[in-house]
Structure formats: structure tokens, C-alpha cells
Write a structure and sequence with these properties.
Length: 247
């Protein structure tokens, strides 16, 4: 871990691997939450930030990706720290094996510490291992309205602890951050639409000597006649007006 890494001594498990104390874990999650919410971001920027933070934060992770299961059943990579994520998704599609084909709900996870010998995916596991990835962890961040998954990869064997609470807590922070980003982006689009509609109404009022109510009904009629969304009609009017040379 780098930016989100913790200084100071840690306790150790029986194999000598460092583990996090409760205080360190609390501090780590506070750092993750602060990093994800440090500024208002759109959905894509937030997905990029979560993916980078996952590779940097979750013990054992070397690379990470976030993917969306589309309504057509395709797994679309939204962000990745290495191109191997796209290769693994393509292998799942080609071989029809892997977590994307298993029933899933938010919080569910799959962990493999030796992909070549994993009998759940007899074709996929060896194919991923041939890419130099021996451990994989996939956890579902969201299952409604779309399934969004966080994938973690490592060249090491047994890189991930199936019961590691850091993964669960990180997924929770990611779910909240993505929800906030989606809500903020929706709000921004709504404000932009209202601004554009107001500007188009002003142009119609000036051009056709209409009052505010008449201008709005004029735009609505154009929307209904053309079977086009009102904000699209307004945007077209504003764009056409701005590109028309002034006398």
C-alpha cells in the first residue's frame, strides 16, 4: 500500500504475515472514505478512483478492476489498473465459466488462491494462470439495478483471505461512494437540463413574441410532435441559435 498505507508496527498472524489491529483498520477505512469522498466526482471518475484505491488498499491485491454486467449479459470493464482485467473478462465470455456466470447479490464474493487447480473453473482457471495471475477475488459491490463487481488479482498464490474484513468494508465504502456519485451526476444533468430549457424558452419568447407560459408550451409541442425529449429539443434550439451568425 502506498498513499493509503499505514505507518507503524502491526501485529502478526501465526505465519508471520502482518495483520491490522482494530485501530489500524479503523484508520485505514477512514483514509479510504476520505479519499473516495474528497471531492464531488462523476460516476466514471469515482469508478477510476475506487479501482486504484482497491489495488492500493486491499491486502494481497496487485491489480484491480470494476466491471458492470450489462442487460445483454456482457461484462463491461469500467476501470482497470492493468489490461489483464479485460483479458480475464474475455476469457470468462469465451469459456462460459467464472464468477460472472454465478448467481450473485451485493456482498457475495469468490476467492481462488490457486487458479490453475481450481475445480470450479477447470477451463478458466488455467487460462488465467497462463496470464501470470494465480489468485483472484471478486466481490459484488451492487446487484440492483445492475450487478457491479470489484475484481482483485495477484501473481502470488493464496494472496487473499476469504474472510478479510477489509474487503467487506472497502466494498461498503465503494458502494456508498458510487451511489453518491450517481446521485450527484443525476442532479447535475437535471440542473443542466433546466438551464438549457430556460435558455431555449428565452430564445422563443424573443423570436416569436411569446410569454413564458406560451414559450414552454411551444417547446412541449415540438417535443411531442417530434417524439423527442424536451431537453433535447431545448439543446437543439440553443445550439442552432449559437451557431447562427448575428447580423
Amino acid at each position: 500500500m502506498s498513499e493509503l498505507g499505514l505507518a507503524g508496527d502491526s501485529s502478526s498472524d501465526v505465519d508471520g504475515e502482518p495483520t491490522l489491529s482494530r485501530a489500524e483498520l479503523s484508520l485505514l477505512m477512514a483514509q479510504v472514505g476520505q479519499s473516495l469522498a474528497s471531492e464531488p466526482l462523476g460516476v466514471q471518475d469515482m469508478v477510476d478512483r475506487i479501482t486504484a484505491a482497491a489495488a492500493d488498499t486491499v491486502p494481497g491485491a496487485e491489480q484491480a478492476s470494476i466491471a458492470l454486467l450489462t442487460v445483454e449479459g456482457d461484462l463491461q470493464v469500467l476501470a482497470q489498473t492493468a489490461s489483464v482485467a479485460t483479458q480475464i473478462n474475455d476469457l470468462q465470455t469465451a469459456l462460459r465459466q467464472g464468477p460472472r456466470f454465478d448467481a450473485a447479490k451485493a456482498g457475495q464474493r469468490w476467492v481462488s488462491g490457486d487458479l490453475r487447480g481450481d475445480d470450479r473453473w477447470p477451463l478458466l482457471g488455467p487460462a488465467i494462470a497462463d496470464l501470470g495471475i494465480n489468485s483472484l477475488l471478486t466481490t459484488v459491490i451492487a446487484s440492483e439495478p445492475h450487478r457491479v463487481v470489484l475484481n482483485l488479482f495477484s501473481a502470488d498464490f493464496e494472496a487473499f483471505d476469504p474472510d478479510d474484513i477489509v474487503v467487506e468494508l472497502f466494498a461498503h465504502h465503494a458502494r456508498v461512494a458510487l451511489g453518491y456519485a450517481a446521485e450527484l451526476e443525476s442532479l447535475r444533468r437535471g440542473l443542466q437540463s433546466r438551464t438549457t430549457i430556460g435558455e431555449a424558452m428565452g430564445l422563443m419568447m424573443a423570436r416569436h413574441d411569446l410569454d413564458e407560459d406560451q414559450a414552454f408550451r411551444y417547446l412541449v409541442r415540438m417535443s411531442q410532435t417530434g417524439n423527442v425529449k424536451l431537453r433535447t429539443v431545448a439543446a437543439d434550439i440553443v445550439r442552432t441559435s449559437s451557431s447562427t451568425p448575428r447580423p
